[in-house]
Amino acid sequence: MRVEATTLGGVAGEWVWAEGVPADRVVLYCHGGGFRAGSPRGSRQFAGRLSRASRARVALLDYRLAPEHQFPAALDDVIAGYRGLLDAGHAAASIAFGGESIGGGTLALAALPAVRESGLPLPASAFALSPLTDLTLSSPAITDPAGRDPLARDGSQFTAAVRDYLPPDQDPAAPLVSPLYADWTGLPPVHIEVGSTERLIDDARRLAERARLAGVPATLEVTEDAVHAFAATAPDTPEARAAIERIARHLTACLETSGDTPQLSPQTAGAGVTAAFATPQESRMFARVITAQAGPQGLDGLIALAREQIPGAGQQPGFRGFYLLTNAETGKAMTISLWETREQMPAGIRDQGLPATGLTPPQLETYEVTVRA
């Protein structure tokens, strides 16, 4: 494992990566510690194992701590760190956010709507270990007297942590404070790991459900009797190893690299449209192509429709990419989803036509395409 001090957007941190892992895929990771403690050093072992499993380098951010630095200082540091990665040449599609406990919920997950507000491109995905997502502390498991969380007998430490983190006049239900109350529409896929006895299990469940209702691919893994942030705090256990493998699969499905992502080059050919794709090696794939003329709702209607028709495509076996090409002058648009085999296309994509709302007329076709360098 390699460790190297760094500064991202003016925020100190560390790069951690396993031997031989290239620098083209990055996880921006936020440690836990209840807003008041913790540092990159405590996350090195987890970061090294995740790097090895996911073939991505991990940037551990040394964000500012409460009570000396209250909200939004830590979140501002995450956004600054992300901006630093972009300025260094990392593509947004090759970056994922991650974190444990408060670093997973109120930083890594809250950073997604914060990035959207900033106008920066969204990262490819995010994952969280045992995230705190609701700083109103209204999730039932937080104060459940029958709770079995060995690290949080009564949940009082959450009240103390929130008190130190938030200024006196700050609304704890503000979307950038509690990601549970953010608008999740259009945000990237998320993966959450949590133990079954944790007081934060309801925070994890509620966040995953809210994301899904907004059309965001969200996976939630609940491990029986696992402790808080077990993948990072108990890394030698079989449960932690399994969780790291699940997170790695999520990252592999979502993160792009300069070498393995199909590149789209559309060309106009008479009245039709063709598309050429290039990857490092030749292979056969299937492309689901939808061409349409935007109706009264305009191209925004098509974009919304595309999101509705392909929920969770990035989590589907065989999915290799989704593209949307539009022409604002003519109102014409084309969406393309790439799959390794025709059978791996979900039935809703393979066999069903799009509703005509806002589009006249939609034309749907499935092509077998040659993908080659």
Distance N terminus to C terminus?
33 Å
Strand content: 25-35%
- Taken from the alpha-carbon principal axes, the silhouette is globular
CATH topology of the largest domain: Rossmann fold
Order of helices and strands: EEEHEHEHHEHHEHEHHEEEHEEHE
Q: In what order do the strands lie side by side in the largest sheet?
A: 1-2-4-3-5-6-7-8
What is the class of the largest domain in the CATH system? Alpha Beta
Mean pLDDT, rounded to whole units?
A: 81
Quaternary status of these chains?
single chain
The beta-strand count equals 14
What are the segments in which pLDDT stays under 50 over at least 5 consecutive residues? 258-283, 352-362, 369-373
CATH architecture of the largest domain: 3-Layer(aba) Sandwich
How many helices? The count is: 11
Q: How would you name the CATH homologous superfamily of the largest domain?
A: Alpha/Beta hydrolase fold, catalytic domain
Roughly how many Å is the radius of gyration? 22 Å
Largest β sheet strand count, sense and barrel closure: 8 strands, mixed
* SS class: alpha/beta
What is the total number of structural domains?
A: 2
The amount of helix comes to 25-40%
